[in-house]
Design goal:
alpha+beta, 7-stranded mixed sheet, 3-stranded mixed sheet, 11 helices, 12 strands, about 30% helix, globular
């Protein structure tokens, strides 16, 4: 049997751990943090970062509360979402029942009530950029002060209202089922499915899930590249090229070498990825369990098993550029050309 940790209770962290906790921020971010805490209103904001942290420590003394830790940590993760790995989760609701509307206080109470039946837990909820943010700290065999420097027992949930998706940071296997059940209880859904779509860009995951059916060439219509709203006087946007220029920006007297090949490559790229900037996705993994179709000189027979990984700042942009310059054979395999609309980035490829 656990308990809900009171937000106003003090976390007895050492001065070293508290300093490390604040040192993650750059100076400008730290100033915003200081401004957000009423207890720190007397701190001199013109101090350099090191002395500013010392002034914060002197002001707080040995008392920093669970709510302060949660709020400040949430501010850091809202500024640095890519510091965590996120998984896209889909909530399933009874047919005909829309996503529920709730207040943060209700959500906080529901999550606290469910999780405190099993663990000592602290829940903190907030709004940021149109989304609901939830921070869960599960004190399962961890000293209270460890939440200042340890992230393994801290879980974040991000939910955009009026959607069925939640983006969840890494969760310990021992806590996963409890967190899933807490989501089901608190959001009123019948099930929550953790998909195999993961990444560090929350914006990229949102784009790939919220607009799964309007990626690639269809994204141009969603972004008003073709037809404006029939009742709107706004003109459609100029079509943009992958090099950042609009078609109308090209000098009409310029002679383009290999124009036919370039147009064919551009058409193939647009067909798979559209002309708009693709969502940010850092990784994709393909597990192959097929027959070898390569050269007979390799003398391979039977099933061929391999794992292929794509890794980079934005693999969809990378694939698009390979097609654009003719370095990738077109048409791309379906598993690559539909990667942006598949809703996952881990695949198992077998013989049909």
């Amino acid at each position: 049997m656990g308990r809900s940790l009171k937000g106003g209770a003090a976390v007895d962290g050492s001065s070293v751990s508290v300093r490390k906790f604040f040192n993650r921020f750059n100076r400008n971010e730290l100033i915003d943090v200081v401004k957000s805490q009423a207890e720190l209103d007397a701190v001199d904001l013109v101090l350099p970062k090191g002395k500013l942290i010392s002034a914060v420590l002197a002001r707080l003394g040995s008392r920093i509360t669970y709510d302060q830790v949660a709020q400040i940590d949430m501010q850091y993760n809202q500024l640095h979402t890519k510091s965590k790995k996120w998984a896209a989760c889909e909530m399933r609701f009874t047919e005909g029942v829309p996503s529920p509307r709730f207040e943060l206080e209700e959500l906080h109470a529901e999550l606290s009530q469910h999780l405190s039946a099993y663990f000592d837990v602290h829940v903190f909820c907030g709004h940021h950029d149109g989304a609901v943010w939830v921070r869960l700290f599960i004190q399962d065999g961890v000293k209270p002060a460890s939440q200042l420097t340890t992230v393994s027992n801290t879980i974040y949930l991000i939910h955009t209202p009026h959607t069925n998706h939640i983006y969840m940071s890494n969760v310990k296997v021992a806590h996963r089922d409890y967190v899933s059940q807490a989501i089901i209880s608190s959001f009123g859904c019948t099930n929550v499915e953790v998909s195999s779509l993961t990444g560090r860009s929350v914006d990229g995951l949102k784009e790939l899930t919220h607009f799964q059916d309007s990626q690639g060439m269809y994204s141009e219509y969603r972004q008003n590249w073709h037809d404006s709203h029939p009742l709107s006087r706004e003109a459609p946007r100029k079509r943009r090229r992958h090099d950042g220029l609009a078609d109308s920006d090209i000098d009409g007297n310029a002679v383009v070498e290999d124009a036919v090949a370039i147009d064919a490559q551009r058409d193939a790229s647009d067909a798979a990825f559209g002309g708009a900037e693709p969502p940010e996705l850092e990784k994709a993994e393909f597990q192959l369990d097929t027959k070898c179709l390569g050269s007979s000189e390799l003398n391979l027979s039977g099933q061929y098993r391999a794992r292929v990984k794509f890794d980079g700042p934005s693999i969809l942009v990378g694939l698009r550029e390979l097609v654009k310059i003719g370095a990738a054979e077109t048409p791309l395999p379906t598993v690559l050309s539909t990667l942006n609309s598949s809703g996952k980035n881990k695949f198992v490829i077998t013989e049909n």
